[in-house]
Amino acid sequence: MQYHYSSDKPADLKEETVVCFATETRGLAGPYLRSLDKLTGGGLARAIGSEEFGGKEGETVVFTGPSGMQAERLIVVGLGKARGLDADAFRRAMGELSRRSSFSQAGSAAIHFGNFSDAANFQAAVEGYLLGSFKQRDYKTGEAAEDKTRLSRLRFSVGRPAWVTRARRAVERGVIIAEGQLLVRRLTQTPAQDLTPRLYAARARELARKLKVSCRILNEKAITQEKMGALLGVAKGSEEPPRFMILEYKGARAGQKPVVLVGKGVTFDSGGISLKPGLNMHEMKQDMAGSAVVLATILAAARLKLRVNLVGLIPATENMPSGHATRPGDILTSRKGKTIEIINTDAEGRLILADALDYANKFKPQAVIDIATLTGASLYILGYAGAPMVGNHDRLLERILRASRMTAEKVWRLPIWDEHRDQMKSSIADLVNSGGKPAGTIAAAAFLENFIGEWPWAHIDIAYMDLEPSGKPYTPKGATGFGLRLLIEVLSEWKKL
């Protein structure tokens, strides 16, 4: 895709298709809509008068061969109510438009922003286009494998010349962020046969090398030397050996302590001996979504040249049933030395995160954020609307909440109380790996709390946020890549807590 920038008026744009935006209106409110009406020979006024178009979110009106324009087509897109309008409205609008043939089948298109001058709008628009038009074709054959989109040149035209540089920087940033989120989608939709822990580690090393990001891989022998008994316990049932990935990006001075990101990397989760039901088990190839977010965040941070030192930790394993698998009732010893009674082998994610969170102490971090498809219980807290979050540091959690509002990747804070901590105690070991159904999401976080050091910590449970069941404007049905935009926003203007 070629991107261009200008401050041309809609009438002067020479692309095949021109896109303009409008908020909700009952008439030609303001000079901008009146100018568009003039270009369409009164067509916009007629569309509004007939209630064919009113600027509501999701509405579009297409004018073919507008007499006052050089373009072959003008598309006016509704953003919804002007009051409370945010950048995500542009992300949603462009996500929806990205799949319309009137836009995608044009060889070139221009997006004219009129008086919408905020850089966040420019960034969100390109993100919406790239995210909304995404299709996973890697395993398709024949015509279905072909990308039939004709659009190859996209111009961002802003209302004033002084805004052009702002638009270019915002779009370049949005492209990098969207491509990072698309990497998460591609990884999480890769079949487990093609993303075993070893193949995953090799892929991570290859991607990191291109961006001069350090990537060390611990094999099974090295993991054993690190005494990661919880990770090894999960891996025992699989023929595929585990891997532990350590990525480092240095964007700040050498002495700055890093922010450590930890992602759950279960490349296929059968549930182990506590076998999951067969229905929808194919989705368990996505149980490594948290790790994909961590990997893509580190890579995107390098491309954006963020001024922060980062470490990404990814414990990668399969969770399979076999004669070698860990059994309910077994006791594992974690890297920290705490013993864990296995109540349910399908509560495996917290086990591999436990060893990774303890390993994070090596880096004396400023803060640690872990992200994981951890608990089915999260569905009954926020549904498919957002991700529960737990942590021990108010300022860190507030930063994540603020980033959530900025990116429209919704998270909400939950407490950990002593009752939840008591729920995870064992009568014969230090801890149990499952406290049963009550407060399952919080109880899992209470388990993880045992393995953090003396540093600010946040845990984000993205179970059910990694997969879109029906499809939304910039999130087609399937993998979402949720969490990438959130973490990049948190890290972009990182300051000491």
Q: Can you walk me through this structure?
A:
This protein is an alpha/beta fold and 497 residues long. It has 2 domains: 2-138 and 149-181, Leucine Aminopeptidase, subunit E, domain 1; 190-492, Zn peptidases (Aminopeptidase). The protein is built from 16 helices and 20 strands. Helix 9 runs antiparallel to helix 11 and helix 11 runs parallel beside helix 15 (440-448). It is elongated. The mean pLDDT is 96.
Structure at a glance:
The protein is α/β, with parallel strands linked by helices. Helix content is 33%, strand content 20%.
Structural features:
single chain; 497 residues; alpha/beta; Leucine Aminopeptidase, subunit E, domain 1; Aminopeptidase; 9-stranded mixed β-sheet; 6-stranded mixed β-sheet; 16 helices; 20% strand; elongated
Question: Mind sketching the topology for me?
Answer:
Blueprint: E1 2-6, E2 17-22, H1 31-39, H2 43-49, E3 60-64, E4 73-78, H3 87-97, H4 101-104, E5 108-112, H5 119-132, E6 153-157, H6 164-188, H7 197-210, E7 214-218, H8 220-225, H9 229-235, E8 243-250, E9 259-263, E10 265-269, H10 289-304, E11 309-319, E12 331-333, E13 339-341, H11 349-359, E14 367-372, H12 379-382, E15 387-391, H13 394-407, E16 411-413, H14 418-423, E17 431-432, H15 440-448, E18 457-461, E19 467-468, E20 478-479, H16 484-492
Parallel strand pairs: 1-6, 2-4, 2-5, 5-6, 9-11, 9-14, 10-11, 13-17, 14-18, 15-16
Antiparallel strand pairs: 3-4, 7-8, 8-11, 12-13, 15-18, 19-20
